[in-house]
Amino acid sequence: MATPRCDCLIVQPIAQSAVRLLEDAGLVIHVASSTAFADLEPYLTTAHAVITRNHGLSEQEIAAAPNLRIVGVHGTGTDKVHKASLAARDIPLANTPGANAQSVAELAIGLMLTCARSLVAADQASRTGDHLFRQKHRTFELSGRRLGLVGFGHIARLVARMAQAFGMQVATVSRFTPAEELQAEGIVLMPDLDSLCEWADIVSLHGIPEATPVIDARRLALIGPDGFVINTARGSLIDEQALVAALTEDTIGGAGLDVLTIEPIASDNPLMACPNLVLTPHIGGSTEEALEKTGLQVAGKVLAHLRTIGEIPPIGT
Length: 317
Hints:
Elements: E1 8-10, H1 16-24, E2 29-31, H2 37-44, E3 49-52, H3 59-63, E4 70-73, H4 83-88, E5 93-94, H5 101-116, H6 119-128, H7 133-136, E6 146-150, H8 154-165, E7 169-173, H9 179-184, E8 188-189, H10 193-199, E9 202-205, H11 217-223, E10 228-231, H12 240-248, E11 254-257, E12 277-279, H13 288-308
Parallel strand pairs: 1-2, 1-3, 3-4, 4-5, 6-7, 6-9, 7-8, 9-10, 10-11, 11-12
């Protein structure tokens, strides 16, 4: 069977406007039906570009693409792309930082509100006729509460402004943002993460994963039984076993997670049985607006590189 021609393989679906942008430049596009290697391999053989999302691109997949010239990531995270394989062949890796920031920031605030007002439990109470729910269930306002941001990139900056609009006090730990810049925005720079966890009523994660989880059992204890943790960044930022124990033993008030170490979540994952936990299936950047912006941005970066190296004609020729 003949090898199908594919100039750009899209591993996971992106906005149709982004696909059209690539096609209008003369590229033959294939949107994969699944992320299984057997389905990707025939198209990797001829692909000059690959656009992926949270699937990433493995060493095996990169090796199967001898004509590969660029990899684009639809989103910020590139941790699932085998960078050593790309570097060995001098293949650039493009991502789209900030393209979905508004959507992710809004979800972070939404998870805070959901936890603060116990909205999932309140919905269930209404459906089951528990009319005494409001009398026996403790909830709280965001106004006047302390929000600790771990990291201060595109998303955290937006979260800070939204939280301040609610009347929250905001602090952060950041290695890259000058103290005077934070001060101008009314944000406190904490000396370290332990101090932030002790200070905050809600800790929201926006950093980059490290070798070990930044929120472990000890830091969950610092956040305490009245505190909450929100994660819309990377699942590996939290020690999930420690979080299960903290939620089960009521040593933390609750949590809202849009990301997990392994996605999608398995039905037997211990988190599924935890109280005071709100789970969403990695929807932070999945609004129509974010998908459009992110898709067009990654497609534009792929096209710009292919034009630079002469794989496709420059615009206007």
